Each structure stands twice: as structure tokens, then as C-alpha cells.
Amino acid sequence: MRAIVLILLLAGCSSAGLQFSGVAPVRVVVDGSTFDVYARDGDVQAIRLSHELFPNKADTLARAIAAIEQATGCQVLANSLAGDTALVKAKIRCSQT
């Protein structure tokens, strides 16, 4: 029973990799999916927090791209996306204004 409670508690957490240590996440909701987005030096990581039964990978990745771009104001670089329905990593390019 304790193991189940621990798993459920951890399932709702967002913890970025060491590369994003000290970076505060930006929480974004896109079409019902909630993401914590971490960005540093052109690298970005989006962690899906919402519980979704059998999420479609293509749809989830599209929502992750939208969340990344909304949170950072930058464009996700083509062919830089990697990950699954829970964790997405990408490279971003921010235009200079």
C-alpha cells in the first residue's frame, strides 16, 4: 500500500534533469494537457503533468511544441524534438528583436 501511495505522489511531480537545475518551470496548459517547461541556453524540456489515459503520441508532441513555444516565446527547431508522451526535449531558437 505504501508503494502505491509513493508512486501516485511521484507521478504528479515535475523534476527537470541536472542541466536545468535551478531553473523554475513555466506551467502551460495546451488543449487540456498541462506541461512544466524548463529552458536554458537553447535547450528545453517539457514534462507533461496531466493524467491522460492512452495519450496519442503525435497529438501530445504537438501540444508539447505549442507549450514550449508559448512558455519561451521561441521557435522549436525542426528535427530537434525527442521524447515520448511524458517527457519532451528540444532545441529552440529565439529571434533577436
Would you give an account of this structure?
This protein is an alpha+beta fold and 97 residues long. The chain has one domain (2-93). 27% of the residues lie in helices and 31% in strands. The protein has two helices and six strands; from the N terminus they run αβββαβββ. The protein has helices spanning 2-11, 57-72; strands at 26-30, 33-40, 43-48, 75-76, 82-83, 87-93. A hairpin with a 2-residue loop joins β1 (26-30) and β2 (33-40). 25% of the residues are buried.
Spans of at least 5 consecutive residues with low confidence: 4-11
Number of discrete domains: 1
Elements, N to C (H/E): HEEEHEEE
- Rg is 14 Å
Global shape: globular
What is the residue-averaged pLDDT? 88
Which class do the helix and strand fractions yield? alpha+beta
- The amount of beta strand, in percent, is 25-35%
User: Based on DSSP secondary structure assignment, what is the total number of beta strands?
Assistant: 6
Number of helical segments with 4 or more residues:
2
Distance between the termini: 54 Å
The level of helicity is 25-40%
